[in-house]
Write a structure and sequence with these properties.
mainly alpha; 5 helices; binds fe (ii) ion
Length: 147
Amino acid sequence: MSIFDALLQSHDKQRGLCAKIMQTKGDTTKRRQLHQQLMLELRAHAQAEERYFYAPLMFHDEGLEITRHVMFEHHQLEDLLREIDALDYSHSKWLVKMRQVTDMVLLHLHEEEEQFFPKAKEILSELQKQSLAHQYWDEYHKIYDAA
Ligand SMILES: [Fe+2]
Ligand SMILES: [Fe+2]
């Protein structure tokens, strides 16, 4: 498995959770569980991806601009996640806010997959593509285990 397979696996998980969460209505156990799962998934993915995908890319001139752009978006997303964390599950604006989260997530994933992954495939060595996948999962699971 390469780092790209690993990242895509996480991205697909996020898309699935986003779709399910948008079907929820009111303060239910299902909404709470899906919200907790999505927050953990987004945060574990962002941290592991920053450390074991984008950080190595930053060492290359062609990867610097991509990385800056992505870090900015991760930061924006984190701000939005904090906003929804602060909202009551039964709040009338909860689903509106979650729609903003899912829109931002889907746009971000699309941008990474369509624009940044092809560039990164040219930048990273074959050895790096393999070893980063292992490091990515180690970091990702470490965050899950600590949750
Ligand atoms: Fe990302
Ligand atoms: Fe990603």
